[in-house]
Amino acid sequence: MNSVPKVVDNANSDDYHSFWTGLWDNKNTPWDKGDVSPALRELISEKKWQLPSGRGLVPGCGCGYDAMFLASPSLHMTGADISPIAVETANKLRDEKQIPSSFVEFRKLDFFNFDVPEGKYQVAYDYTFFCALHPSMRAKWGERYGEIISSGGHLIALMFPLDKLPENRDVGPPFLLSEEDYHKVLDDNFELIHIDPKCKTHSDRVGLEVITVWRRK
Ligand SMILES: C[S@@+](CC[C@H](N)C(=O)[O-])C[C@H]1O[C@@H](n2cnc3c(N)ncnc32)[C@H](O)[C@@H]1O
C-alpha cells in the first residue's frame, strides 16, 4: 500500500469518506490481491471449520472475493464498503461468476453506522479492515462487532500486518498491529477459540498474517 496517503481517524467525517472513495475513484487499491485470502480458503476448505449458519458480514469488503467465497445456501453474506465503486465492482464480479444474489449481496454501508438486521450476524470476516483504521478507532471497531454478532457467532479475523509493515511502507494504512491489539478490544465480548500461526498466506505477506476465530460470548 505504498502510495496510500495518511488515513483520517473519524468515520463520521466527510474527510474519512472522501479518503477511501478517493482511493477507489483513482484506482489506487494496492491492497487488492485479486483472490480469496489463502488463510481463509485453508480454514474453510481444507481444515473444514464449521461456521454457524444464518447471516454473514465482510466489512470493508473491497472487490468482495472473501464474501463470495463464504456465501452458501446456509450462509447469506453481505459485503459492505463505503466506496460505491467497490460495491459496483463486487456486484459485477459476482454476476460474472454467476453467484446468485440470494447468496451474497454487496452494499454501500459504513460499518460503524448502519441498521443491523433483526437477529444480527452469525459470522463476520475481517481482513485488511482492522489494519486500515486509524489506531484511535480500534476500540469502536471491537464494540461494533460486539453489537452486530449474535451470541455464539464467529468472527474470523485474519491478523495483518503483524511484526512489521509490508515492504516499502513506513506509515499506515495498513497500521502495524499485534495479537494483543485484538485481545484489548475483543476480550470483553469474544473468546479466542482458534489461532493458526502457520496458516497459508499471500506470497508477499509471509510472516505477517495469522488467522484467528473469536466466538461471541
Ligand atoms: C485496505 S482496503 C481492504 C479491502 C479488502 N478487504 C481487500 O482485502 O481487498 C479497506 C476497505 O475498507 C473500506 N472502508 C473503510 N472504512 C469503511 C467503513 N467505515 N465501512 C465500510 N467500509 C470501509 C474502504 O473503502 C476499502 O475498500
TrEMBL record:
Keywords: Methyltransferase, Phosphoprotein, S-adenosyl-L-methionine, Transferase. GO terms for molecular function: S-adenosylmethionine-dependent methyltransferase activity. The keyword S-adenosyl-L-methionine applies. PROSITE patterns: SAM_MT_TPMT. GO terms for biological process: methylation. This is S-adenosyl-L-methionine-dependent methyltransferase. It comes from Coemansia erecta. The lineage of its organism: Eukaryota, Fungi, Fungi incertae sedis, Zoopagomycota, Kickxellomycotina.
